[in-house]
Amino acid sequence: MAKQAESDTDPQTAAAVFAGLSFEAALRDRYDGQAGRDIFAKVEGFKITEQARAAQLYPFFQALDRNDGPEAEIYGRRVVMLGSNNYLGLTRHPRVIQAAHDALSDHGTSLTGSRLLNGTTHLHERLENKIAEFLGTEAALVFTTGYQTNLGVISSLVNRRSVAVVDKADHASIYDACQLAEGGMLRFRHNDARHLDRILSRIGEDKSCLVVVDGVFSMGGDIVDLPGIVDVCKRRQARLLVDDAHAIGVIGSGGRGTASHFGIDGAVDLTVGTFSKSFASVGGFVAGDRNVLEWIKHFARSMIFSASLPPASAAAALAALEVLMDEPELTDDVQRKGETLRNGLRDMGFDTGESQTPIIPVNIGDEVATVTFWRDLLERGVYTNPVIFPAVAMGKAILRTSCMATHTDEQIEFVLDQFQALGRKHGLLP
Ligand SMILES: Cc1ncc(COP(=O)(O)O)c(C=O)c1O
């Protein structure tokens, strides 16, 4: 494991390092100063990641030796995994592993083609039917990733006469989808239904609107004000898409997500989800009315022009969903673990923001302080995720932590002990 960085790193250098670590187009463009004819010219100036590694401030692309769910191994050391989206801990569940094995034997490694042509199996259809049954919708449609789901769903619906209206804290895939869509995009203040109302009131009657919100926000762990948003959408005749990537399996009755959490099942027009979190696999889906999905199926470029979800991944997701339907108490377990960790951190004096779920940010602010804290935690056997600019605003860096249903009480206690010891050492606690 890397040695701890000097704590007196010049803040300006550190800020420059972290600004350089961002991959936003605007920041990428500044390397184009050396442009000219060669499109690779810009990469010559891109030394910032090397500098960050040399300063032992580079926190990304860390290779795990093993991932065993609630625990992992990195640099030859066992750590409590507090930085994954494996909320129900099902990546090591025997039923899920067996289902993936069987699909691999039955169908081979890949279908090597789009769902539209040779890439659909009965396994994909069974998975779609099971999701629709679980969420109580007419139908569901499976994509190869959650990212591609948002890309395909939003860009196929938001045409030149439409506007997508998104929460400022929505996931990057929603923003990317809006760039691909031909229509416009407007943003409303985070979780502010009144501001959404104002924005919708200014959009002309000739434009159709799709409001897009995350159910549980991926960085803050807060839950969208769905009743407020639904009310505004109804009054303003806007359709509503909820991205429940972090909500399915985690909140709502039996893990049915945000609408269920508020007891307003059926109030959402489209629900997007992913298999890369609670469902212990990879892939994504959209659930809603059959006729809307029929449209999406034939106009979503990310579905038509990309290979389908491999059978082993589809089988793993289906098995994980079946486990959740058989053992709905998994949702209570992950919530309980989250509550213990959140209350423990808050009681010590850490700022965990608006978190209401097992996604618990620890707000630190300074980028260098965040990364050195992350690295010290790792040294002590706790794996977390440092989230820095541009994923959050400059100077608003966080450590993102998340719990699993399969974390033991001892593991959570161990984690809290490490936070307490290091919080004091780093001057984050009194
Ligand atoms: C809210 C949200 N939507 C969509 C995605 C994309 O999901 P996937 O990993 O399946 O591409 C993510 C992934 O982190 C997410 O957090």
Walk me through the structure.
The protein is an alpha/beta fold and 430 residues long. The chain has 3 domains: 8-54, no CATH class; 59-87 and 329-425, Aspartate Aminotransferase, domain 1 (Alpha-Beta Complex), CATH 3.90.1150.10; 92-326, Type I PLP-dependent aspartate aminotransferase-like (Major domain) (Aspartate Aminotransferase, domain 2), CATH 3.40.640.10. 41% of the residues lie in helices and 16% in strands. It is built from 17 helices and 14 strands. The chain has helices at 11-20, 25-29, 41-44, 48-54, 94-107, 122-135, 146-157, 172-180, 193-201, 226-235, 258-261, 290-299, 301-304, 311-326, 329-348, 367-379, 409-425, and strands at 66-67, 71-74, 77-81, 139-143, 162-167, 184-188, 208-214, 239-243, 270-274, 284-288, 359-365, 382-383, 385-387, 397-402. The strands form 3 sheets. A 7-stranded mixed β-sheet has the order 4-10-9-8-7-5-6, sandwiched between helices. A 4-stranded mixed β-sheet has the order 1-2-3-12. Strand 7 (208-214), helix 10 (226-235) and strand 8 form a beta-alpha-beta unit. Helix 5 (94-107) packs antiparallel against helix 14 and helix 6 runs parallel beside helix 14 (311-326). It is globular, with a radius of gyration of 22 Å. Pyridoxal-5'-phosphate (PLP) binds next to helix 7.
